[in-house]
Amino acid sequence: MTTKLRVMIADDERPARSFLAALLRSFEDVEIVGEATNGSEAVEIIEREKPDLALLDLQMPELDGLSVVRLLRKEATPLVAFVTAYDEYAVRAFDLNAVDYLLKPVDSVRLRETLNRAQERLDQADFRSDEVSHLRAAADDYDAATKPDYIERIPVRERSEIILLSVGSIASIIADGELLHITTAADERYSINYRLKELETRLDPAKFTRLSRGAIVNIEMISRVSPMPGGTFVITLKNGQKLQASRLQSRVLREGLLRI
């Protein structure tokens, strides 16, 4: 009996995740070992279950598919196929670097091709080293091709006036339902009706970083990082704010900002 291909799925949209899972269950040689609703869960499931193949949605809250790949340790990185709505940059980057991708809505025949390709790579003696290098090259190409023009000001309302708030003056952005609460370096506070996930894509990631699913901070405003039990951090900003970083984002900080 042929060993089943162990697959995990990560997609923050339930209908898309359920549809993909149903397609996978139609193949007798596939076993689903986990379903993640976001990038954080994806990292946890991959490192715990060690799947052969991870199907990662390219756009997910807190950690997208590319960020998941960057966080995984080399020895824990499975074969990866990115699932995305049509995106010419993704297709070009993944084609160029031999990383597979699936376009939404996923087609059963195309998915079968991906599974066959994954099985072929697993049969290669040193697939992991090549796969990791291909994944990282694809991620870099995609980032370079899709780098947007980042905003420099955010319009906020103060009584009857509209203020153009400089992005550089922002210390933190905290999500609260459908509202975002913005606090500046001078401890001024404003609220806007906007989704954190959408605003994050318009902020320069070299200047702003996630602390958790509901919080983004200006890196220049961080004054102190205090380790806590369990491997998390409490972040103190220059305006006196103290914010808790999630376990996964603490790991991002440790491996990125806290290294010389």
Polypeptide structure, described:
It is a single chain. The chain is α/β, with parallel strands linked by helices. It has a five-stranded parallel beta sheet with strand order 2-1-3-4-5, sandwiched between helices. A five-stranded antiparallel beta sheet has the order 10-9-8-12-11. The protein is built from eight helices and 15 strands. The chain has two domains: 5-146, Response regulator (Rossmann fold, 3-Layer(aba) Sandwich); 153-255, OB fold (Dihydrolipoamide Acetyltransferase, E2P) (Beta Barrel). The longest helix has 20 residues, at 127-146.
Search tags:
31% strand; alpha/beta; elongated; Rossmann fold; 2 domains; five-stranded parallel β-sheet; OB fold (Dihydrolipoamide Acetyltransferase, E2P); 15 strands; 260 residues
